[in-house]
């Protein structure tokens, strides 16, 4: 049986002094723990992170004589960084959305869908994310022989009737030439260079059923097999798009564009693609509304907290990932220790930052296998498939052990900085433990009222490697079932997939903790009568807890209270109504 112990000073001493009977893993863990001052390490890291955020150019080293001094200075830096981030968030809610549409003969139904789409998209945005302000524009393209009809565009406007009236005049024109490729690059280039992109979040939604000219894109009959007659290339067009921080989305109709998409991905990395295969016009409009709304919320939530360089380099990295579960027989067994916090019993314990410290930490030895390449990644972390392997001895027959295997996911921070990674990983476990505690309380209330359950995965810290210099830390959690992984809302307050239960859960965490925190950034899978979530973020009035995604008391009021619309589930749970008209959401300035 594996050994369980609750860490305490005495236990640690027993572990390290009794070296003959203790494995090297346990004694080195005890050594690590002895040397870790969680509070001090955390303060130092927060000060460093806030410093980098609030003054990207200067590298001031923080000097402090006492822990209290360090605390005061860190709070100051954190609040400065938070206010800067909140301003960026508000600016990112201003969106330029441009439809780039192939307007040749075969595209009639899609042009019709685009006409009707925008008013529905606006209604949806107003209902879910009233803080998002949108300007829309249009760029239609045909082919080189079409002369005056080759390109047509309407610059960005917030007068939506004007947009709809314009769209009603857009006609699909069958090209007079006899080849299939169209002037795709000309259309994209005009949208990128000739339209007046001003807002922080920029969305280019491209819909087309034919490839650009040139042999690299197609083997279909082509009057310009050497490529664009005006000298445009996919590289120079897409690079202009990147330098203007424009997000690219594609609505796919046929396989004829597959080669083009592959080439585009090779240049800018992965981008979201939507199925817009025609047929039933009503269904097509529905698909387009959903695709457009997701593109807007995706772009808004990606614009914040990371610059486009980071986003594009991340997309590039995605190409090196392996989405397949590895052949476990080829991977070697590794040993480590998992650690987790004892779940708080009361709200006071949860609110007490010193609760989450060494005496409340548990550990257990752990055998596992890990894939060599990650299967997915975000701006912060990447994730690997893993296997938890337990050998359970059968009672009375100690020589035979039964092997039990459980599918897991291991996550690793991409940038750890110069600080102690042990402390940062412990913080991730603390965030999950708090979310877990609140979900249990929510479910207790929800059960009586027939509301779907909200569950969080059981997250632990995994430490592996023996007493060598390259001790590695990870986060480990059970692998979610094969259901579509969704992000329901972001810590910026943006609702990406509206689920009343989850929005009510966020409200519940605010009310239950008496305004101390909100749990947000809800993501995971949706089952019949239950959500299973992971990787939450927490906004808390104590800005020295829960990491860089905690936007403090202003985050609670400006990102949650100002956006939340109480729904039927809030009412069923008898949560007090939140009146969001009292919160001001106008960005304070245009500079960062
Ligand atoms: Zn509510």
Automatic annotation (TrEMBL):
Keywords, sorted A to Z: Kinase, Secreted, Serine/threonine-protein kinase, Signal, Transferase
InterPro entries: a-kinase_dom, HMCN1-like_VWA, Kinase-like_dom_sf, Thr-specific_kinase-like, vWFA_dom_sf
Residue ranges of domain Alpha-type protein kinase in the record: 347-578
GO MF annotations, alphabetized: ATP binding; protein serine/threonine kinase activity
Compartments reported by the entry: Secreted
SUPFAM superfamilies in the cross-refs: Protein kinase-like (PK-like), vWA-like
PROSITE patterns: ALPHA_KINASE
Pfam families: Alpha_kinase, VWA_4
Domain of life of the organism encoding this protein: Eukaryota
Primary localisation category: secreted
Name used for this protein in its record: Alpha-type protein kinase domain-containing protein
Lineage, highest ranks first: Eukaryota, Fungi, Fungi incertae sedis, Mucoromycota, Glomeromycotina
């Amino acid at each position: 049986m594996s050994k369980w112990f609750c860490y305490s000073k005495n236990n640690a001493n027993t572990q390290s002094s009794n070296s003959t009977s203790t494995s090297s893993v346990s004694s080195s863990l005890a050594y690590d723990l002895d040397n870790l001052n969680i509070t001090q390490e955390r303060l130092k890291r927060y000060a460093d992170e806030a410093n980098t955020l609030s003054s990207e150019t200067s590298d001031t080293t923080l000097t402090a004589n006492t822990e209290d001094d360090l605390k005061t200075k860190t709070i100051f830096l954190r609040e400065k960084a938070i206010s800067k981030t909140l301003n960026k968030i508000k600016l990112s809610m201003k969106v330029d959305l441009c439809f780039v549409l192939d307007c040749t003969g075969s595209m009639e139904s899609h042009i019709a869908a685009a006409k009707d789409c925008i008013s529905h998209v606006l209604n949806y945005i107003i209902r879910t994310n009233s803080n998002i302000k949108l300007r829309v524009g249009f760029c239609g393209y045909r082919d080189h022989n079409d002369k005056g009809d080759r390109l047509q565009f309407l610059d960005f406007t917030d007068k939506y009737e004007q947009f709809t009236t314009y769209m009603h005049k857009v006609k699909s024109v069958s090209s007079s030439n006899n080849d299939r490729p169209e002037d795709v690059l000309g259309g994209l280039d005009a949208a990128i260079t000739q339209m007046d992109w001003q807002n922080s979040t920029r969305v280019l939604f491209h819909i087309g059923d034919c490839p650009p000219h040139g042999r690299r894109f197609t083997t279909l009959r082509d009057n310009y097999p050497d490529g664009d007659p005006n000298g445009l290339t996919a590289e120079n067009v897409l690079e202009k798009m990147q330098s203007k921080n424009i997000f690219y989305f594609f609505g796919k109709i046929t396989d004829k564009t597959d080669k083009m998409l592959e080439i585009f991905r090779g240049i800018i990395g992965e981008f979201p693609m939507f199925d817009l295969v025609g047929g039933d016009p009503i269904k097509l409009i529905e698909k387009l509304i959903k695709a457009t709304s997701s593109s807007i919320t995706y772009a808004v939530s990606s614009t914040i907290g990371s610059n486009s360089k980071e986003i594009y380099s991340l997309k590039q990295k995605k190409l090196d990932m392996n989405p397949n579960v590895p052949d476990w027989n080829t991977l070697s067994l590794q040993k480590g220790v998992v650690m987790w916090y004892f779940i708080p019993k009361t709200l006071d314990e949860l609110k007490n930052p010193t609760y989450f410290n060494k005496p409340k930490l548990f550990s257990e030895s752990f055998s596992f296998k890990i894939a060599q390449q990650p299967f997915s990644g975000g701006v912060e972390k990447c994730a690997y498939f893993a296997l938890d392997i337990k050998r359970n001895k059968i009672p009375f027959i100690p020589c035979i052990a039964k092997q039990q295997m459980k599918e897991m996911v291991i996550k690793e921070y991409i940038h750890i900085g110069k600080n102690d990674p042990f402390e940062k990983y412990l913080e991730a476990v603390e965030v999950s433990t708090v979310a877990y505690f609140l979900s249990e309380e929510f479910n207790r209330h929800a059960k009586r009222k027939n509301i779907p359950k909200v569950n969080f995965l059981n997250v632990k810290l995994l430490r592996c490697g023996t007493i060598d210099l390259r001790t590695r830390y990870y986060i480990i959690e059970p692998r979610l079932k094969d259901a579509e992984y969704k992000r329901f809302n972001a810590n910026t307050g943006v609702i990406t997939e509206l689920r009343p239960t989850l929005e009510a859960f966020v409200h519940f965490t605010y009310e239950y903790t008496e305004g101390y925190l909100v749990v947000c950034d809800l993501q995971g899978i949706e089952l019949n009568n239950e959500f299973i979530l992971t990787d939450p973020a927490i906004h808390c009035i104590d800005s020295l807890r829960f990491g860089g995604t905690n936007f403090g008391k202003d985050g609670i009021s400006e990102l949650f209270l100002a956006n939340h619309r109480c729904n039927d589930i809030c009412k069923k749970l008898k949560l007090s109504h939140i009146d969001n008209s009292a919160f001001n959401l106008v960005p304070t300035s245009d500079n960062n």
